[in-house]
Write the structure tokens for this entry.
Amino acid sequence: SAVISQKPSRDICQRGTSLTIQCQVDSQVTMMFWYRQQPGQSLTLIATANQGSEATYESGFVIDKFPISRPNLTFSTLTVSNMSPEDSSIYLCSAKTAGLAHATSTDTQYFGPGTRLTVL
Amino acid sequence: DAKTTQPPSMDCAEGRAANLPCNHSTISGNEYVYWYRQIHSQGPQYIIHGLKNNETNEMASLIITEDRKSSTLILPHATLRDTAVYYCIVRARGLSGNTPLVFGKGTRLSVIA
């Protein structure tokens, strides 16, 4: 299984500022994702982080608000830009090894512990 | 959209088996059933997955009906630490599974002393 760490684990920020969240995976994975979990809600996918190219965003999420980088196979960052109180959420990094033509046991998707963001 | 239906909440007495149901009537032939759980303030934790045969590991058992339209996750001896939100998710594996998991609302399991 992959072990995923995130930094910071939590932060309190002022509106209008930006926060960059880091995600580190302990093994090389081909796919990385970012999710948001608003208070009392389930997880919502923000984007797929692509190595060496622009992230693929889900409907309702844009690059200007949530720029994502993935410089290599084990590291990604998510920036929450120009924050407002509505951005207060838990942000989760996730990773998996891409499935092959024949399904393998390494196809499982794993999650980091999350970053709890509060915007005042 | 999530392709599964789960009860919003369940209670279970400590030490008893917790049986969490999930309906996935539109599941495709190449889709597996995955279960994850999320303990408060933590990231989701993988529990188990299966295609059509029943599966068991150190955490739980997964029972899938013969028509594959529903399944049950069984925690054989629930403890207070099993209190969490449990998510049932269907997704293909292999090349067709190279998409991120889509989460529904899950079942909030409360284990009571």
